[in-house]
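worker-03 picked up job from queue 'complexes'. Input manifest follows; two sequence lines, order preserved.
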Amino acid sequence: EIVLTQSPGTLSLSPGERATLSCRASQSVSSSYLAWYQQKPGQAPGLLIYGASSRATGIPDRFSGSGSGTDFTLTISRLEPEDFAVYYCQEYGTSRTFGQGTKVEI
Amino acid sequence: EVQLVESGGGLVQPGGSLRLSCAASGFTFINYAMSWVRQAPGKGLEWVSAVSGSGESTWFAESVKGRFTISRDNSKNTLYLQMNSLRAEDTAVYYCAKGSSAVRPYFFDYWGQGTLVTVSS
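worker-03 finished. Artifact:
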């Protein structure tokens, strides 16, 4: 089973700043089968990124994903108030496991 | 518009059983794999179980294998999770999630709002 480790656990930033979230896999993720989800308080998760770098429908271009192999990054170029949430990465090629999440807080 | 509506959650005693349902609409149900993902209070996401579009293939996390059964009724566009021998550690919000295709690999492109299962005496 692939284990995903997200860092940092919490990211404290202000609106307008850039956020960089990391997701590291215990073994190589085949064909970049890596997704990112956003979860706001009291809500279900929602898909942001799939295939490591493809934005889901309706996701603004301030969200971008990159990486391959074992190291992946979610970048939010300029934080909007609605972006303060918890972000999870997921490997979906073999084990469907999630990372433990990164909370982006004001 | 894709909609996933879970039901069936509630309070159950340890060792008891519960069946969750997820009513799907807005897409051709049989063409997509479906999954259950849970979230314990204050914790992260844990994938629980998945079923292929046809219903012929199923997969389970080790933590629920032998206790949970997943199934689907493609004539009713409904996904189920039968949970037996429930434990306190099964307490969580259970989300129904739509796969992006019928077979692996797939990510979860739509999620329901979740149903809370509480296992306690």
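worker-03 released lock.
Chain B touches chain A at residues 35, 37, 44-47, 50, 95, 100, 104-114 (CB under 8 Å).
The CA atoms of residues 77 and 90 of chain B lie 26 Å apart.
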